[in-house]
Amino acid sequence: MSERNRWKEDEILEMLSSIQSQAPPHHFEFHDPFWVLITTIMSHRTRDEVTDAAARNLFNRYGDSVHLSKAKYEDVLSLIGNVGFMTVKAKRVIEAARIIEEKFGGKVPDRLEDLMTIPGVGRKTASVVLADSFGIPAIAVDTHVHRVSNRIGWANSKDPEATEEQLKKIIPKEKWVGFNPMMVEFGKKICRPVGPRCNECSINAHCRYYSKIRQD
Questions:
Q1: Whether 142 is catalytic
Q2: Residues 148-196: pLDDT tens digits?
Q3: Is 32 a catalytic residue?
Q4: Reduced to 3 states, what is the DSSP secondary structure of residue 183?
Q5: Predicted TM-score of the model (pTM)
Q6: Among 52, 89, 132, 142, which one carries the catalytic annotation?
Q7: CATH topology of domain 3-23+139-215
Q8: Given 3.40.980.10, 1.10.10.10, 1.10.340.30, 3.30.70.260, which CATH number is that of 33-134?
Q9: Which helix (H) or strand (E) holds 167?
Q10: What is the rounded distance in angstroms from the CA atom of residue 60 to the CA atom of residue 51?
């Protein structure tokens, strides 16, 4: 049975509503497309609070893509010092700002294909920018979304891109915007990487993982 046939839309909508009720509000440090882009580039393997603080440091110092594109590597490095893989990311954010200025006329593109031409920007980062900044339907699959979706049984994949494709088949398109931040917060509070709070979860009756651990 295909995933599309297994899950009925009304069941998915009910589950999304239940997840939303248990997910704390997601904190957005920025909504501006450029700073969402920069923040997301720096977010890999880094806690949200560290990423947000680093992005705020860059914003306070440079303000826009024009000035960040001309920044000195050492100065950027000093401002994002607690971010994971900081030496790579310092170069990436300067390069991203330069490309936005030189290739896209100072405006962050609103097409996935264009965003992914920027070094350091994969499908997840591009999808975050589209959904969270432009309100364009996209599903960004980060570690939380990948883990939770596969635990529930919405996806069955070890590859985030395959998980994205499987989710797009069952999650109504009008729910794609906001899906990632909701699932991230649900994954932090309830469906945690270690010690998931299955007994507190409002969708455990639908969850493949919970069904399995009860049988075990």
A1: yes
A2: 999 999 999 999 999 999 999 999 999 999 999 999 999 999 999 999 9
A3: no
A4: helix
A5: 0.93
A6: 142
A7: Endonuclease Iii, domain 2 (1.10.1670)
A8: 1.10.340.30
A9: helix 160-170
A10: 14
